Every structure is written in structure tokens, then in C-alpha cells.
Amino acid sequence: MPATTSNGIHPRFTTLPSNVVVSAAPACPAWESELFLLCAPDRSALLTLVQQLETFLQREPTVDLKDLAWTLNHDLPTAGKRLAIVAGSVAELQKRLARSRERLHRPDCTQLRDSLGIYYFEEPLYPQGKIAFLFPGEGAQYINMAGDLCAHFPEVADAFARCDDAARRAHHPRGSLSRVFQLPPHASAEEFAQAENELRQLGNAMCSVLMVDYALWRLLGAFGLSPDAVAGHSMGELAALWAADAVEIDDETFIRLVGAVEAMQHAEAAGQGTEAVLLAVGAGKADLAPLLNAHPAGTVFLAMDNCPHQTVVVGLPGPLAAIEADLQARRIMHERLPFRRPYHTPLFAESLAPLRELFAGVKFHTPRIPVYSCTTARLFPHDAEAMRELTVSHWAAPVEFTQLIENLYAEGVRLFVESGPRGNLSSFVEDILRGRTCAALPLNVPRRSPLTQLQHVLGQLAAHQVPLRLDPLYVRRHPRRIEWMPSPIVPSLPPTLQGGAGARAGVMTSYFEVMEQFLDLQRELMELYLARGPQTRSPAEDLIVQEPLASLPAEPLPAEPAPEPLPLLGTVIEHVPGERLVMRRLMDLSRDRFADEHTVGGRTVSKVDPHQHGLPVMPMTFTLEMIAEAATVFCPGKVVLGLDRVKLHRWLAFDEEIVGEVEITLRSAPANPEEPGVTLLTVEVRDLSEKAGVAALGFVRLGDRLPPAPEPTPFPLADQHPCRITLEQLYNSLFHGRLFTGVLSLGVVGRDGTIGEIVVPPRRGLFSWTDQPAFLFDPVLLDIAMHPLCGWHLEQESQAGRILLPFEMGRLEMFGGPLPEGTQLRVQGRIVEESARHYVHTIEVIGPNGRLWARMSSLKYWRFYVPFGSVNFHGPKDQYFLSTRWTAIEDKLQQMRSHPGPLAVARLEPPADLQRAGMRRAAGCVSLTPRELSEQRRLSGTEAEQIRWLFERITAKDAARLLWTQIHNERIFPADIECYPDGPGQWHGARRAVSEPEPFPRVATTHRDGVSFGVACMTGRPGIAATRLTGPAHDEDRSRLALEAVASALQTAVAELFSESCDPESGLVRILPSANLAPRLPEHGGAPLRVYTFAENGYLVAITFCEQEAP
Amino acid sequence: MSTRTRFQIERDLATLLANFNGREYSDPIGPETLFFGDLGMVSIDAVILAEKLEALYGQKLPFHQFVSQMSQRGVQDLAVGDLAAFLQTHLR
After folding, report:
1. Interface list for A 424-443 with B (CB within 8 A)
2. CATH fold of A721-865, please?
3. Burial of A401 (0-12, 13-18, 19+ CB in 10 A)
4. Does domain A34-124 fall into CATH 2.40.10.120?
5. pLDDT tens-digit profile of A397-446?
């Protein structure tokens, strides 16, 4: 088991009490088992895949299972037949693959459901069948439930930490809930028995199960699972209401809940109220009815109808003893439960007061997900009061679990996932629905490793076609791609390929140089910075990446950390107080939810997945906040006054698949003699995932207190007029999501400035673990303060691909901390154009008291050119094309073709700016499907190859989209087209998430001298070739290109073809297959193939559809 | 005294458990095979298994004794061999 601190929380998470020592994360040991998913369009293709994998494993028996699992699982197609296997070794995997192959060969095999871990369903239950999550209640607890899941999944660790903290504040005798059920592996039998007894106490049982229910619910969410309905059993019903957002369970409520349950536990132990006997019986309601009816009314009750083979009978001691004897005589299994109070019977009504009081203070809402009541076996009412009453009275009413499951089944639920420990509910479901198709999946069971059981459940869900993302299994383990498939065809590159836009003079060429400066390490700046820093350091030291320290830091953490955990604070790696502080922070998209609201490239990227956005990038203001938070660790007790001369070298991009990491190094700097009371630190931010590249450099200013807020600077504005840009136009041009939307009005605009109004937006949703992040500044508001100035920019005449990205902040001064949501502020901003590439903004943010809240001076921006006319580069991606439609060629083709049909021809000359690595990633995020984006991530060729990979693909999609729109009058997003290469320059595409086969354009592309060309058609076999034309087009050139075009279309070599004739007038070339090739083209009747060549716009282009010349 | 040998009983159980309740188990099932850890059975399955065995052997069996023995042993898993021993004792 990986090392954990004494309260079971993984050391990586820093929201810990100050007496816990923090160390760097240990290296990751192999897991006991891995999940492998194979997916193919049909069963026979699946069998081929199985065989291929078997062959590979024979060849590479030492393959790392985690790497193999990730390779298989991370870009799962949405449709097709799926086989899921759980295995702990290569040998096991081989055995299970062999078994799968044997069974799948037999046509009578319609499913595989092997406890060892083999799952296949010819008729998957989803999406026709719905999914329900079931939450168990007391009785489900067991020692070491959920095992070490909190070490592997932050969702579980966070949930545990939260509940533990609430328990501590509720004065739980153990100080935490997880301590009650977590025992170290070396515990003795006595310790074990004692722990079980303690856990069995009602209060502990209820709260610990509730905690695990909640933690597993969070975990399921991390895998992208969301149910169509939820329900809970006894205490588990509260977890169901919680999951559906029907109740608000904040920390205060949880504390009171722990208190109320503890009170119930004391009453139980003290034998208060009606004393009862509880009996679990191995028989159903129907069998028990006659036995119960033999006793006077009100003395015995059926408290729980769990399933046909389990009920719980509760009653007064006398009558219960008689029932026991009866059951004994009939040899029906039964067992006394260790409780003494009549739960879930009318006898308990007298004890409901504490619960009623507790729930009186709890807010109920209309559930976000349908919640079924375990009392009525129907949906919870929507009225808050009625919900409250039902929740409370559940405790004095029988648990009608059997009827509940029957009703869920009648509503179409077929998959039941048990989000909680032990798996009792799943076994009830199997019993209730015996003989009917369904799947009951317990997430955590006592006798199986939690990770393995989780994999079994995920495997079955995947096999039933439930959409899942499996990233959480790998995201902290750094998997590598394995080449296991027979290798695909790699396109060969022409030797003269260049990466840039070639011979573009003037602004573009000089800008290219400027871009180099911007995005790479600036040597002179670095040296300047080193010269300014403290004495005893050599430049070489600074440039060496610090290795993570496996041992304790040199000094203990400062005695007084900030009262609330700062949200952008990382882990201390090294701390020499007063001298140097090195901290590292993970960049995890699942936790830093704000990043998904700040996506370079735009927001509206896909109709299939409305949550697909551009490249998530840390906003500059968040980088500043992150620096400031680290500075408070360096100088405890001091206040951050602001930052100076911060230079941003590269953006910090997030990645869906890999958790990145940044490193912040603070060093003390000599004070500025003009500001003796101000402590100065230097800061360096490195992106550890980008070969330790420097992301930012600057200075932090700290003091004893914030200075008094000054008056705003007088702000004369020439040519003042109301801003002509609407808010809608503004936000269409920004790539910010809802959480960063805060401009109230764009106010007035003048010759060199603007005045606008902004508002503090809600903060819920910025981070996964807190709804009220305790920022030092308010980085969201600081970012929003920059938006009104975009109104000025949008008003300017020339809009040619305007993208402004900040690269330097001269000075940030703060005069106040975060303000309440809804606070309105005024922004006055000055805009100076220093050059065609270079703007400077100065912004003052004025608070409700008329004084400054913050000032940002000399905020410098680069202006990027993405010159696609008036195209809004950040707008919805179905509204424009990066490629140019080549109508001149299209018109001529239509006249010349022997089999006319709809077609599209496109050409893309990607601008230099867009070819840079960072921009390519952003372009990928908004143009590619998730599968393709994964592939782009792992490209390992040269810059030129990677540029070609992306832009040829975009051209192919544009050609297909142009044609599709022409035929169907419907727009498609490029990210909603899956492009599959059939070979170099040959594509077949499909609309994403459309599983029915449908006619889709066939596309051919070629790439020459940094330019991509594409042709799309519905019939025929397209092929295209092109070259730059520096003089008149000669016959040889036309013929040569025509041969290339046909070679591409037929996926054969140029040597297998020859040119029969070339007509210089029309440009028509006739191509014949060689004697060698002809027999392999059965449809070819011997007539030449027509190729059309055109000299247009400085290019010579050859296009064919492999139409045969009429005899 | 039983007319079926221990080995025969173990074979009966292996056949029954190889495809039980819609779930298969393709590894060999022997006396060491664990009900919960290996076969992935759950508590209700014990009740169903009891019914099936009573039907198979045509007699009622004191499973409730067996169950209480199990709960006395705590959370230890149960091996096929343990059940076979129980059956051998009680089968006529």
C-alpha cells in the first residue's frame, strides 16, 4: 500500500492540519490488476483484434500492463462491440483472451460474464436501459471498506477529508470517521474484533457508510458516469438525496448530522424507548406474511423487504422469540441483528424528534436527478416540505426495497450501480430481478481489492456501452503508448518541405523572429534576472531542474499557515526560510475546473459534445495569484501588495489526459531603497511538463498591510461615445466561459481608452473541491477587468484576425481582497498602440466606495495575426473554414467531369502564428475529435511532420464540411468529424457519434511546401496532387502530377502507372495502369483514367476521381 | 454417512459453480477455490446455492447451521472444500 499519513489521507493533498508533515509523492507501484477494453465495429473484427493482441503478447511478454491498458482504453470508439477483461498479469490476460476467443467463435454465445473478469454482451443494456445508482445504508459497513481508494483517487480523498473534518468539529470521540474503519494491515485479531464492534455501533455504522457512499459517488462522477435515477436503502437514502442535490449538505449540516446520529447511538446503547428484537430472515415477504399475521397487530412488523430471500422482521421480544422458533422449525435461515430499537416500524415514531429537528434545518430542493423513495418505492415529491416529511418518516416506515427495484425496472432501469460498500444491495437486485436481463454492479466488496473490483464494474459498464472516461485510472501514473497494432502506413514527406509560410516578406518574416523571442527562453532577460538576484548562486544551478526530495524539507513548515487553504498553493519541495522557497503544484483539469472556462481557440467547438472547448490555459491573473499565494508561505504574516515586472514566456496549458505540474521558486531580493518597508522577492515559474521551460519571471512585493486605497486617476477621454459593441459581440470574441463572464456594460469608448462596468460573478465551480475559494486577490475579477478594453479593440476598423495575448505585467497593485459576489465595480482603461504587434493597457478597477480596488499598469500584449479576413477566430467553429474554397477549380471540374456530382476543393496555407506548437495545440482542441486529439498529443515526429499532420487533417475536414453543407444545407463542426486515413492522402470520414453508416464525403489531400490541398466527392475515388508553379505549366509537370494523383487514389506506386496523353489546352491527362497493375483493378476495363490539371493562383493542381474514359 | 464421496461432491459443486446465476467462472474450481474472493459470490448467492443443492440432492440440509458457523468465523472467506465437507457430513 502506498504510504499514507496516520489519518489515511494521501500526502499529496495539502489541505491538512499544520502538524502533518508533507513530503513529495512516492513513485507509483504497479496495481494488482488492470482493465483492458477492446472495441471493434463487429464481432468478427473484435475477434481479429483479440488475435492481434494475443500475437503481440507472445512477442512482448514483458509489456507493462498499465501502458497496454491505457493504450487500449484511452480513445475508445463510441460505437461497436466491446470486450472487457480484468487481469493481473500477462499470463492471466493471455488466458482470458484465449477464453474470449474460444467463446466468441461460437455463434450461440451471446454474452460473456466471467467472474474472473471477462465481459461481453452481444446485446448491451445501454442506452436502451437506464442506469440507477443505489446507496446502501447502515449494515453495509466493514473494516477497511473502500480500502486504499483514497490513496489513488483525489475525489475519494477529498470526500474523506471533508467528512473527517466535519466529524472532528462535531467532537467525534475518534476525531475522524475514517479512523473508525481503517485498520493497519498488521492489526491483531483482538484489535480487529474490537474495531468491528466499534464500527457496528449505530452512529459509526451510519456515518461511515454515508461517507463512503458519498466518496464513491464522487469517484463515479470522475469517470463521467451519471445516473438516470438514484435511490438509497435506509440511511443510504440521505446519500441519494445528497447526490441528486435534493438536500444541501454543507459542512455545518454534516456536523449536525453526525451529532444527531450519535444521539441515536446513545439512545440505542442506553436502551431508551421501546425495546425491540431485530431478525434478518432468509425468506421473502410472502413467506413471512402468515407468520407475522399470527401475532397481535402492532407487535411484530416487516421492517425491511429487501428481496425474495431476505427480510428484516422487528418486534417486541416476546412475539419475536416465537417467530424465531417457528423459523427454526421450518429450517429457514435467520439471525438476530445487534440492534435494540424498532427502526423502520411505527414503534419508532416516538423517537423521531431528533431527526425531525435535524432536518428542519436542512434545505431541500427539487432534485437534479430523479430520486426514488425507499418508503413509497416511487419518486420523491418535489415539494420541499413533503420531501422533508418523507425523509424523516422513512425511519418509522418499512423499507420497501423489493418494490422499489421492481418499479425502477418497470421504468426502464437495467443497470444498477451500487455506490457504497459491501455489495448487499446488488445481491438484493439480482435476487429480485432473477431471470430478467439486468446488471447489478457493486463498486466495493469486502473480499476483493477495491481497485480490482472498480475495474470489474467499469469493465461491465463499458461492455454494456455506457459512455465512460477512464482517465482517472491513469492520470496520475504517467502511462506510455504501446505500439501493439500492426503498424499503419506512414505518409512519406517530399524532401523540399518547409514549416513556414515560405517567401512571405515584410511583417510576416520579421514577426516570425519576434515569435521566436516570445515563445522561447529569452537569454538576455534571464541573465539580467540572475544578475539582480541574491549572491551565492551560480547560473548553472538555477537552470538545473530540482529533483523532488524524498525526505523531509530542511525546516518545518511555518507555524502559521493561512487560516483557509489557498486554492492555488502547491506542495513545498524545498524551503530555506528567508532565502529560498520551491513549491510545486499539479495542474489537474479535474480539480482546476476554472481552466475549462478559459480555453484558447474558443468555446463552441462541437455539437456532439457541448463541453468540448479550446485549449484550457491558466489565465495570467491566476498565475499571478498562484505566485502571491506562494509568497505568503515565504513571508508568513505579511500581505502581498502586488507584483512587478512579471514577464510571461509561455502559457500554462492544461491537458485532459496528463496532469501537468508547475514549479514556483521564490528568492529574497534586495529591497528597493525608495520603498524600505516593502519586502521584495524574485519569482520564477516553470512548466515542468514542457521540458522545464520558464513560464514566468517577476517580482513580488509584500508589506505589513495593504496601503490605503487611493483615488482613481483623473481619466480624460477624447472622442468619447457610447461603445458600439454589444455584450454579445464581446463574448463571442472572447474565449471565456460562464465563470469569467462579468462585464455589465461596455460604457463609453474614446480615442485611447474606455470606461465600463463589471460585476463579481459566482465563484462556485472554479475548483472541484471548494465552492468558496479563499483567494488573496480575486484573479477572476482581475481577468474580467481586462474585458471592457476588448470593446475598444473590437470597435477598431481593421479586425484582421485580432488576437491579443498578454506577455508582460508592468505592475499590479492591490488595495483590497476578494469582494462579495454581485459587487459592481467600474473599470477605466487606457490603450496605447506601440506598434502593429504591441499594445499596452493600463487599467484601474474602482470599488463601490469610489476608491481603487486594484491597478494594473503597463500590461503589454502581443497582437497575433490569423488573417482569415473578418473571421472571428474565437467564434463557433461551424461558422467558418480555415481553408479557402477553390471555386475556380470547382467550376472547371464540373464542366469537365464525365460523371458530374457534388464536390469541393479546398486549399489551406496556415499562417506562421498558427503553426507554433502552442497554437497548434489550441487549433487541435477546436478542430479535432477526442480520439484525434489524443493522437496529436502523442505525435513524435519533427515540427514539420507535426504541422503537416494537423493542417492536412484540417484541410480534409474542411473539404468534407464544404461538401456536406452544400448537399445537406447543414453546418458541421470540424471536431464532429472523425477522419480516418486509409493511406497517405486518402481519407474516409464519418460524423462523430453517428453509429448508423451513412454516405459521407470521401476526401483526398496532399501537402506541398507547407500548403495543404483537398478534394471531396461523394462518388468515385478521389486523388489530388499539387506543386508550386514558378513559370508556365509544362506537359511533363502535368503528367507527373497526374500520376501522383492517381497513385494516391488507387493507393499504389507511381511506377505502376503511365501517362498516355496530355492535352495542354484543357489540362486533361489520361493515365493507364501498367500491365502489372491492371489485373489488380478488376473494375478497370482497360480505358484510361481521367485526371484534370489546373494552373491557378501560382499552383499546378491535378485532381482525379478515377473516372474511366468512355470508349 | 454419504453415498457420494468427497471427490464427487467437489465435482458436483464445481459443475454448479462454473455457471451460477448467469455468471461463469472459467478457471478450474477445486477445494481451495474461494466463494467470495474467487467466484465473486455474494451473501444472497449462499441462500440460492442452498436451494439448488437441496434440489440436487433431494433433501433438506441444515444450512442455517452452516451460515452461523460462517458468521462465527468472521470475515474469512469460505472455500469450496469447506462446503463439501459440510455436505459430506449431512448427505444421506
Report:
1. 424, 426-428, 430-431, 434, 442
2. Thiol Ester Dehydrase; Chain A (3.10.129)
3. buried
4. no
5. 999 999 999 999 999 999 999 999 999 999 999 999 988 999 999 999 88
